[in-house]
Amino acid sequence: MTTLVRVRGDITEQHTDAIVNAANSSLLGGGGVDGAIHRRGGPEILAECRALRASRLGRGLPAGRAVATTAGRLPARWVIHTVGPVHSATEDRSELLASCYRASLRVADELGARTVAFPAVSAGVYRWPLDDAARIAVETVRAARTRVEEVRFVLFGEAADAAFAARLG
């Protein structure tokens, strides 16, 4: 059984086996969580992302999928990059968002990770409503078949923390 934990703070400071990056499809860095992970983790992360783009991910990482790299100078061992969907008022993309969590946990299992820290995927610049993002994240992780022992939701702001607190009880 996986233990779900809520932490308010900075995901780049988490001492877990893996941290999940809410990446963009280019894998080459960006704003928000993605930019923070690349800045703090250092050039090793970007180098591995470029190598992935030069080999099997030439068109980038599609939404809902996940891939791992080194964590560079972060206190974690690995970064699992996943691309969340942009929220749409006219198209239900909930399954793509849930797939981010499932795919990240599959990668974590392949790596042998026992502790994983997730941000609120798609709830920032991709404008997914926090309450719904928290619902999808918590329900998906609870239902996942994984060997990960602890999933830590690391939430930067008060609103995200409150949304996840409501779902985690």
Listing every helix as H and every strand as E from the N terminus to the C terminus, the arrangement reads EEHHEEHEHEH
CATH architecture designation: 3-Layer(aba) Sandwich
The number of domains: 1
Biggest sheet: strand arrangement: 1-6-5-2-4-3
- The strand count comes to 6
Cα(first) to Cα(last) distance is 17 Å
**Whole-angstrom Rg:** 14 Å
| CATH T-level topology | Leucine Aminopeptidase, subunit E, domain 1
Strand composition percent: 15-25%
Please work out how many helical segments DSSP would assign: 5
Instruction: Specify the biggest β-sheet.
Output: 6 strands, mixed
The dominant shape is globular
CATH class call: Alpha Beta
- Average pLDDT rating: 96
Please outline the helices and strands.
Blueprint: E1 3-8, E2 18-23, H1 32-41, H2 43-54, E3 66-70, E4 78-83, H3 94-111, E5 115-118, H4 130-143, E6 150-155, H5 158-168
Parallel strand pairs: 1-6, 2-4, 2-5, 5-6
Antiparallel strand pairs: 3-4
Helix pairs in contact: 3-4, 4-5
Structure description:
The chain has 5 helices and 6 strands. It is of the alpha/beta class and 169 residues long. The protein has a single domain (3-168), classed as 3-Layer(aba) Sandwich (Leucine Aminopeptidase, subunit E, domain 1). The longest helix is centred in the middle third of the chain and has 18 residues, at 94-111. The model has no long low-confidence stretch (mean pLDDT 96).
